[in-house]
Fold this protein.
Amino acid sequence: MKRTLAMMPLAILALVMASCVSTKKIVYFQGADSVFAQAQQIMQQYEMKLKPADQILIKLTCSEPDLLTVFAQDVVMGTAGAISSYNLNSSGSIANAYAYTVTNDGYVVLPSVGRVKVEGLTSDEAAKAIENAIKESKLISDPEVTVRLQNGRVAVMGAVRTPQVVNLTSERNSILDVLAKCGDVDDTGLRQRVQLYREENGKRVMYRLDLTKADIFSSPAYYVQQNDMIYVEPNKSKNIKNSAFYTFLAVAGGSIFSLASVAISVVALTKR
């Protein structure tokens, strides 16, 4: 019985150590008071730039609407099979909006206009390039073009509460926005060891991010781009909690507590 009682503190210590996490490892934006002692200029590029295989929605208007019917030819619709009105404008209008896929060499092919280079351009820059191409073709003299990315998405994996592919619904999305949609970093996630993988200029690069530091706001990976992949590394406690040893401790600990309670009761009764 004494041996059983002696083992109880060891079991408690093992269980507590497996679940304890320092607050320094979970508190976001540490050092913010000094970093934001003065307002910080936003230096990063936050608008998404178009890439091959992107599906974009092109909305056209002009003073002679009948001239726009030519653009409905050979249109490739988005993967969802429908046009989402929030990607166009606040009024929700989808008239004269057509979906095109960016070719592997970075162009969109417009009927009666031809190939227009859009790779590496923001949506606004692509709209301007398409406007100029339509004017040069002399098809329409006063085109107004709006371009929106239709299939922007980011994959989130690792120690988050809901790993998933997040669809981007605006032109400006931070890594914090994306993680929030996944329910935030899980209790077993290392906020100091977040990795973001990105395709840049035909190469794949990796950025390391520390969510506990306020200087994350100045990282080139703070604003996500379409096709980014985010991985949150789990800490060792996840492996411990999933191990047979942890399961044994949990079961054994419960048994020890039960035996200890009985032993204390017996001792108390015998002393009366």
Notes: Residues 244-270 form the longest helix (27 residues). The domain at 55-149 is CATH 3.30.1950.10 (wza like fold). The radius of gyration is 29 Å.
